[in-house]
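thread from #wetlab-drylab

HS: before we spend reagent money on co-crystallization trials with indole-3-glycerol phosphate, can we at least see a predicted complex? here's what I'd submit
DV: go for it
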Amino acid sequence: MNVVDEIVKNKKQLLKNKSADEIKQKAHDYASTNDKKFRFQEKLSDATSTKLICEYKPASPSQGDISTLSVEDVIEIYDTTPVDMISVLTEESYFKSNIENLKKAVKLTDKPVLRKDFIIDEYMIYEAVLCGASAVLLINGVCPDIEDYLNLCHELGIDAIVECHTLNDIEDVIEYDPKIIGINNRDFKDLSIDLETTKKLSEYIPNYMISESGVKTEHDARKLRNYGADGVLIGTSVLKSNEKPEIEHYINKIKHVLRKNTL
Ligand SMILES: O=P(O)(O)OC[C@@H](O)[C@@H](O)c1c[nH]c2ccccc12
């Protein structure tokens, strides 16, 4: 069993006593009064720069513990630096986060926030909406029904980032016209990284493309920008230091190369 199978198995267990029906109405009511809709897409539509998405990721299956900073500290940094959108892991067991961290993040910033998790039930989308998230991640091969879940996100006014890693993944989802595709440079099978995944797949992506995982240096970010990424998502490298000035410096450096007028 690979790590994603394990995560999904664990997730099913955690969701056992939850029913989407319990919070469905509440989420729809919330969405009907919320006028801030599709904020990820709105940001991506501004072509003056490639967007920088930074992630709150306390731990991961490949790295173990990543950061000891609190979610409050991290979001404060992301809120006050040129980060365009924020991603918050909510997976409990392998990434050591939780849904409360998403709630906290949304309260602490006006920037659009993505719920990053292994979404296997509509319950998790309603929950994200009720926390004030602007987007959710739908992973092809993990999400049980990309078409239905995309429609649900649309009804609720939030963006979905449909995550793909292979051309087959893209072929699976393309008929549902996803507005944002996330190319994961990390192979879930062995957790290896290859930024060329973005290069290989970019020509098959009709709308917005976010390149995810494995970005370390400005050189990497520039490469992905040149491959056509509309957004670059970084977790581990941005949180490598526990020192606020160092994190700020890293963010400024990366955003600098993502501005279109830099070579
Ligand atoms: O820490 P990195 O290599 O910068 O990667 C961030 C992000 O792309 C990664 O956390 C991620 C991409 N897709 C996911 C799906 C679930 C959990 C996590 C992820």
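DV: The two ends are 44 Å apart (CA to CA).
HS: ok that's useful, forwarding to the group
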